[in-house]
């Protein structure tokens, strides 16, 4: 069963990698033609610098997600990382897609000012890590200081809780004390 699961993940990864390479390579080729042939925008540096994260993310996804086969060619050698998982893998795909969108906007606007939108990537990472740290503190009980909810001040909270057996015994005792007055 484990081998069948790994084969499904390997097939899915091959499909995902093929799609992502096709999309990013076509966008990069069109962008490179616009930058180098038409000199639109005039400066090449931002195009090169801001496409480095795209290439790094693709290389990492390729090395971790591409299935490796044995000498026979049909057996998988080792485990394959699932490229559909959440977390860092998902974040890398977001960087690839966002860089592609930035390249398209750069061509359409003819300006390197669109690269300022790239600030959204670290801002999103800071936002996610802030909430992750806050959730972790709450789960570990570290954040119980000022932000902890206040307990209601009533007498029931101060009394020790009774077990079911004690409650039944008290109820039976109360039953016997009742007097019927006619």
UniProtKB/TrEMBL annotation:
The keyword Transport does not apply. Keywords: Endoplasmic reticulum, Membrane, Transmembrane, Transmembrane helix. Residues 146-182 are annotated as: Disordered. It comes from the Eukaryota. Residues 159-173 have a biased composition (Basic and acidic residues). It is found in: Endoplasmic reticulum membrane. Signal peptide: none annotated. Belongs to the TMEM208 family. This is Snd2 protein.
